[in-house]
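Continuing from the previous page of notes. For each protein in this section, the sequence appears first, followed by its structure tokens. Read the first protein now.
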Amino acid sequence: MQVKKEHIYFLKIVSVSILVILAVSSFLFWLISGGLEKISPNLPAYIFLALDAVLLFVIFIFLAGLAKKQDKRNNSFLIYPARYILIKILYPMAFFITSIFRINRDKMQSSFIEINNFLLFSLNKKAALDRILILLPHCLQLHNCKAKITDDIHNCLNCGKCNIKELATLSDTKGIFIAVATGGTLARRVLEEKHPKAVIAVACERDLSSGIIDSFPLPVYGLTNIRPNGPCRDTLVDVEALRGLIEKIILNKL
């Protein structure tokens, strides 16, 4: 099985989640077993075993999808359900556990984003450059800049003090649409207008995780921003890493 180091933290959180679910479900069955035993003495055990079997099956499908190698074969039989399980079942479990035990949520979400990207790469689905959308957070722009780049990234004043000039050049060179979103509502509007086949989103771990979940089943590849001045202020993006993501998913490399 191929399990990368970046995936381990999320899998640890999920393991704790499963243990908590088993403990709580065991306690609940212990409370209600008296009533169930009146129907059949073995009914509580049968129900408990059935629920455990479903949980183990879900985990098996997810791990089997995670173990698939990134190649040119069609792996969608396992990858699609694995990504569904990751987003709809395992992430909410992990989020709940980080809330209860005050575990580092950014680290968990970063691991979640890495697993999401890995599964999408494993599908080996390509998109034309004009069907790829890059979504950027507004905090990449200097906080005191007067240019209104949310309307058009090319409104950049080209001072070179942030990444926007470099990203506008990337947009022109690749012929790829780049949008700056100030929040989830604007991001959803851009998605509705452009109907992209794939999205590369740059943001903090929290916003990326919520965007991946809200946009499912649309493929959203996440790239966390760099925050030398703390969250939401004069952030940066690794442009070379962004170029690398584009190269991995474009239909015809130029």
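Done with the first. The second protein uses the same format. Note its length before scrolling.
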Amino acid sequence: MAVGSKDRKDREARAARERTRLYQARRQFHEGQARRRTRDNLIAGIVGGLLIIGIGAAQTAYFLAGPGAPEPAPTSTPTPTGMTPTPAPTATTPTPDPSPTP
């Protein structure tokens, strides 16, 4: 009877070691998964932030220097006081009348 009891204890000890090994492996796997998710989230946040900054910079450059920039409007320069502007010369030659076409 004593021999059978020893075999049973060995089997139980072996099963306990196997359960412990599997438990440790599962725990290690899940911890690795959590670290990977944290790393992936950090990388995604950095890339997303850089993308938003890049889009903002591109829009700013487009609207300030690119084809989206507004055309400069002509501005009138004020005349200094005491001076009168000279009138533009007028044409003295009459324009010819168009001839009728047949």
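What the second structure shows: The chain is about 60% helix and 0% strand. The mean pLDDT is 85. We return to this in next week's lecture.
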